[in-house]
Design a protein that fits this description.
Layout: H1 3-15, H2 35-48, E1 56-58, H3 60-67, H4 71-83, E2 87-89, E3 95-97, E4 104-105, H5 108-116, H6 129-143, H7 153-160, H8 164-169
Parallel strand pairs: 1-4
Antiparallel strand pairs: 1-3, 2-3
Helix pairs in contact: 1-6, 2-4, 3-4, 3-5
């Protein structure tokens, strides 16, 4: 993208209006998969290959610790799996995998062994403030000569595929 077109796009981003249509072919970054979907996929893979046996009870806290994430994306992944009837709630004690089998609460150690057995990739993470800082800095710096601007948080989040917290941290 030429400097003029980049500046116009940046200016529109800062004003809060949608960026102008650029006729030339521009590669758009692909939006990263939400964290909860990556976690859900990893858990479903382990259920499918029977590494997580039917009847096992999994909890948010130990899973979050194993994946190195907060409990929120793990909770969302587990609730979605409950909606799909892959797992069911165990009355405040976690989630039971499958329909039958011996009830066995899996500890953090058990889950670490299960999820580190294969060479599967770690959960995919969305971009954080470090990933957008340089680009945001360049965009804002390029607009300074044109006057005062207000950054539209919503449009900037959509542009960089990040949440408000990551944008504010940048």
């Amino acid at each position: 993208m030429s400097d003029k077109k980049h500046a116009a796009s940046t200016e529109a981003l800062l004003r809060g209006s949608p960026p102008p249509v650029v006729p030339e072919k521009v590669e758009k970054t692909q939006k990263p998969q939400p964290l909860y979907l990556s976690i859900r996929a990893r858990i479903l893979d382990k259920i499918a290959d029977k590494t997580l046996p039917s009847g096992s009870i999994i909890k948010e806290g130990p899973l979050a610790s194993v994946f190195g994430v907060s409990r929120a994306p793990v909770r969302r992944a587990l609730l979605q799996m409950e909606e799909d009837e892959t797992i069911k709630s165990a009355s405040g004690q976690g989630f039971v995998i499958g329909q039958g089998g011996e009830k066995n609460i899996l500890s953090k150690t058990d889950l670490t062994k299960i999820f580190s057995q294969d060479a599967a990739p770690e959960v995919e993470r969305a971009a954080t403030w470090e990933n957008i800082y340089d680009s945001l800095l360049l965009d804002v710096t390029n607009c300074l000569p044109f006057g005062t601007f207000r950054i539209s948080e919503t449009i900037a989040c959509e542009h960089f595929f990040v949440g408000r917290t990551a944008l504010r941290d940048a």
